[in-house]
Amino acid sequence: SVGGKLIFGSNPLKAPTLSPSNICQDATKVLLEAINAEFPANSGKTQPRIVVITSNGIGPYAHAKVPFMLKGMYSWMLDEPHADKEEVEKLLLRAANLPHPDFNPNPSSTASTPTIQRLTLIRPALLTSSAASTKTVRVAETLKGAYSVSRADVGRVLWEECLVGGKWAGEGVTLAY
Q1: Which domain of life does the UniProt lineage start with (predicted)?
Q2: Where in the sequence is the domain holding 17, given as residue range(s)?
Q3: Is the pTM value of this prediction over 0.90?
Q4: Count of C-beta atoms within a 10 Å radius of residue 14
């Protein structure tokens, strides 16, 4: 798990900063370098599946789908973490040669041979620390009313559906109750 810490200053009107500010994108660059070194193009080696958790609301297209009641918090409090995760998505989508309306609208023009062959982006709604629940976790490219989901339920769904079940290879999906 890679992530930074939000730092709140003495001015309550100033948005918090992320420390370190580029931690996720820096880790992603290291991951891509390692994949390129260990699994060079046309080597015949089978890459492991790459599953990355970012966040719902990354980029203008996804941010437009965030529930109205959360837009202010996403724009103010999560601005720096989302900027870091936006760079992660740009790097990964280009490396996998996958389309995205904001970051890679014309994937065929970015790479002839994808660096990453089996990428899945998991974009949970606002994460809570509550225990796993019996609520149904909805999963789709975009979800209306994607307010929240617990970390425990994200882990459960990721394990059962993605890693064991093999779903969502080459996709980015949103998870929410």
Answers
A1: Eukaryota
A2: 5-176
A3: no
A4: 10
